[in-house]
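Side project, low priority. Logging it here so it doesn't get lost.
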Amino acid sequence: MTERYLSPYVNFQGRAREAMEHYQKVLGGKLDLRTVNEQGVATPAGPGDSISYARLDAAGAIIIGTDGHPKYPAKAGENVAIAVGGTDKDRLTKIYHGLAEGGTAKQPPSPTPWGAEVGYLLDKFGINWIVSIDKA
């Protein structure tokens, strides 16, 4: 059986560590904070590192977040997306294309430093989506 999840994906504009640690304090669960080193490799984030990817798994609730990219600040209303992901590449590729139909494909699923393939799109209803094809 392949894992699949659906969760909010939030651009915290530089406050991901603060927000995600707060949510962990309130909700409990396991928090994973990642940064990308100078070689482009994802590593556990240390104190003061920017957060390229954060994931909180709290008893069935998943929240994914990031500090965002300073060159691409999120506009109000665009800082939250729905993330769908898992390990079934064929199914998730179909999901990506189905959601993009009638909308705007911002980036097709592409490799990331942490090993997943991630695609971004805006669906025909104006909702941002992130599709993540994770390593099995």
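Brief comment: The CA atoms of residues 13 and 70 lie 8 Å apart.
Revisit when time allows.
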